Amino acid sequence: IQKLIHLLQVTDDPLIQEQALITLSNSAAFSVNQDIIRNLDGLSVIGGMLSDCIPKVKEKALNALNNLSMNIKNQEEIQVYIAHVCGSVESAPLNSDLQLAGLRLLTNMSVTSDYHHKMINSIPCLLHLLSEGTERTQIQVLKVLVNLSANPAMTRHLLRAQV
After folding, report:
1. In this structure, how many other beta carbons lie within 10 angstroms of the beta carbon of residue 131?
2. 3-state class of 112 per DSSP?
3. pLDDT recorded at residue 52
4. Which part of the chain is the Armadillo repeat-containing domain (predicted)?
């Protein structure tokens, strides 16, 4: 795991980055590895990949963070990327794998109400995706919206959102 994280830091080759991110994502399926990745500063390295201009690299980084977000301590670190993830969802091509990866991460990050306030500005986008997206996109958006709607503090923001 340490070598994969180091590889992400030193290479500019998108194919190597994708493969390293896929492997880290698969590793994160095991809870013990989630802690190891966090302790090796892997969350910030993977989070840094969200700024990559290559959509496939961003998508793989989102998938890795999604798997890592099953851990409360990891969520505390991942939450700093929520605004960036929301921006990626908004700017990604409609129904793309990149958009779906971002929505899956937002779903996990919205399971508790701790970070809902960071998603308020994206509610109009989510509602737009609900009306314009394919069934896969709509289902993922609904998961985020259901999580947000479970928080009474979000009611006003959800009902006043302009689409």
Report:
1. 9
2. coil
3. 86
4. 2-163
